[in-house]
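Appendix B. Raw example, untouched.
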Amino acid sequence: MALTAIENLADIIEVSKLLLKHLDTADIQVQSENETNSRVESEIEGGIGSVRDNKKSIAESTSHDNSEQINTAKLLKLIKNREEKIYQLFEHFSPEELQLHLAQLQTMAALDSQLIEKVNRTQQSAKSEILTLKKNKKAINLYQKL
């Protein structure tokens, strides 16, 4: 049984909201991880971190990497699902049929804008973190040469 335009739009809107929720959750996890990493780095630099604490930190990092891979897989699956639904919507329904559901189309477009904005912010944040890590690595290498 084929979905109606309104059902298809409702599915797209629901998946878009779910994507935004997952991206927000991922942002919170990254911020918390960054705070933890900063704390661990400052402890290590100050000579406070013990071998046991470092082992615990490494175990937590490995666990986080596995959950991050699972979250990435979920996000990719949601993105693919959303993409397929959007394709089906515009493939199976005429512009006249879609015009009847203008409010839902506007909601979908607003969610698209939010998703694009969220992804762009995340990308910029990742770029700045990479640059910071590169600078830190250069400083560490220079320190080690001394």
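End of appendix B.
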